[in-house]
Amino acid sequence: MHNFFVLIFDVKIFLLYHTHQVPVVISTDDAGVLRTDLTRQYVLLATRYPSLHYADIKQMIRNGIQYSFIQPAALKRQQLRQLDAALARFEWQVLRAHRPVITK
After folding, report:
1. Angstrom distances, CA of residue 43 to CA of 7, 20, 21, 30, 68
2. How many domains does the chain have?
3. CA-CA distance, 91 to 36, in Å (whole number)?
4. Which of the residues 26, 30, 45, 77 has an alpha carbon 20 to 30 A from that of 59?
């Protein structure tokens, strides 16, 4: 789904796609056109669709590589492995930062 559609896309249509597991990709081709970047698009996605879970957004990120035109296939697999590793590090850091403090 092009970033322009995230800005104007009907909430019901997006949720219909999501409910029926139609792969969705958040992308931006040119920051100069809409004065935006991927970070802003993901923030907009999360705020516009609060019913989405972290796993949903994470899948959309993976879809960006999975459904890309990256060639050869080995390079695409490498990119997916690197993404998985980066997400695992991020999740570990978040868990570590929010670990409850146990007092005696």
Report:
1. 11, 23, 21, 17, 22
2. 1
3. 25
4. 30
Structure tokens at 93: 């850091």
Specify if 66 maps to a domain.
yes
- Across the range 47-64, mean pLDDT stands at 92
Q: Where are the alpha helices (DSSP H) in the chain?
A: 3-8, 11-19, 31-34, 38-48, 54-66, 73-97
> What is the domain extent for residue 77?
3-97
Kindly state whether residue 67 falls inside one of the protein's structural domains: yes
Residues facing residue 56 across a β-bridge: none
In a domain, 11, yes or no: yes
**In Å, what is the CA distance from 21 to each residue of 18, 29, 54?**
5, 24, 16
C-alpha span between 39 and 43 (Å, rounded): 6
Tokens of 15: 């949720």
Full-model pTM: 0.77
Q: Tell whether 82 is covered by a domain.
A: yes
Token pair belonging to 55: 């796993």
Taking only the tens place, the pLDDT of each residue in 17-54 is: 888 999 988 877 666 777 788 888 889 889 988 889 99
